[in-house]
Amino acid sequence: MASTTREHRPTAERRAQLLDAAVAVMRDGGIQAATTRAVADRAGLPQGAFHYCFRSKDEMFSALLERELDASLGNAWEAVAHTRDLETGIAAALRAILDRVRSDPEYHLLTAELVDVAARTPELAHIASREHTAYVDQTDRILRQWQESVGTPLSVDSQLLAQVLVAASSGITSAWLSARDDEAAHESIALLSSALAVKAAQQDLRA
Amino acid sequence: MASTTREHRPTAERRAQLLDAAVAVMRDGGIQAATTRAVADRAGLPQGAFHYCFRSKDEMFSALLERELDASLGNAWEAVAHTRDLETGIAAALRAILDRVRSDPEYHLLTAELVDVAARTPELAHIASREHTAYVDQTDRILRQWQESVGTPLSVDSQLLAQVLVAASSGITSAWLSARDDEAAHESIALLSSALAVKAAQQDLRA
DNA sequence: GTCTATATGCAGATAGAC
DNA sequence: GTCTATCTGCATATAGAC
């Protein structure tokens, strides 16, 4: 019996199944490796299944991008909200972000590649852009929350500080992904946290 | 006459010609677009030419990676050496880096993609790693130079500051490449320069 | 919805004349 | 070194039975 008939499943479920498989394939071999055959195989489905879940490979890629970038948001900066000391909070959050990357470098290499490809592709550029804005906004929200809970206002605009924190985390993780140097990453986190906290909390010391 | 005979050229020259063409093709369509045919076409050579310049596509990719990453080093942090004030120097250097990216976003998107792919590919990972180290070392050298010319020593290790500066620049450029927000980038540069300069030059103000 | 079989095209690499 | 022609395999996508 060459053909095993499979159970009928709602399309949404099959799509998720294929997206999961696509991530698995890409984790190993990068975006290039994600052919429709490889993805369908990994999902345990015949290659033909691909095309009644997605109109084309491009459509799947777009769906994947949206799903993964959204998921990778997480609550990265949550740690800040739970400390009284800004420096401690920033350092803890940066360490948490680094730990997530260290625990699954392939996945984070993949999201970086996804963002690059999206930024270069006209039909996808808005996804990368929207994702970045959402990430900054979420960080901003946590900073305001911290500000309220502590009472003392920041001496810099929270939105601006959020932007810088996001840039700092992306710079540190990308350095780590290239060099895999734990000590360098932790030293950088310590210095950055301290520098930014001093700046953000300073009551014009020299005025 | 369907076949125009071409002049004989040293292999090194042909290789450079193909690498240039590969960059041109990738700038437009990303790494995926760089098929041996597309690259040879862009170079004005027949597809067969590819294989007496490079043993395989992988070999070309490796050569390309090495050449482009090395070229993209530039003297990015040179600006620091030429100012007495560290904050001014850091800000100028970061703005110069951002300007280079703004003047050719496609190229810098490409180098980012190259680094990602290299970091994931076992045979290429060392190139990305070595490149990153070289970049930090070069920045460190400029910081030491500044330190000597100014007389006052930094209050943080110059190598560490160099690491952080490299991370900061990569975070800011990658944010800009996603969101294309000039104002945000310049604000971030100002805040980071100020925060890091205060930290790096502080004579233990609170001691 | 599910599956097999297949159409069509392009990929990387090579052979062999010049 | 240079070129054309071609081998071989895999890519995406579709057709059509169940």
From TrEMBL, chains A, B:
Keywords in alphabetical order: DNA-binding, Transcription, Transcription regulation
UniProt-listed Gene3D superfamilies: Tetracycline Repressor, domain 2 (1.10.357.10)
DNA-binding region, residue intervals: 35-54
Coiled coil: none
Record-linked Pfam families: TetR_N
Any one Gene Ontology molecular-function term assigned to this protein's record: DNA binding
Transcription regulation found in the keyword field: yes
HTH tetR-type domain residues: 12-72
Protein name (database record): TetR family transcriptional regulator
Lineage: Bacteria, Bacillati, Actinomycetota, Actinomycetes, Pseudonocardiales
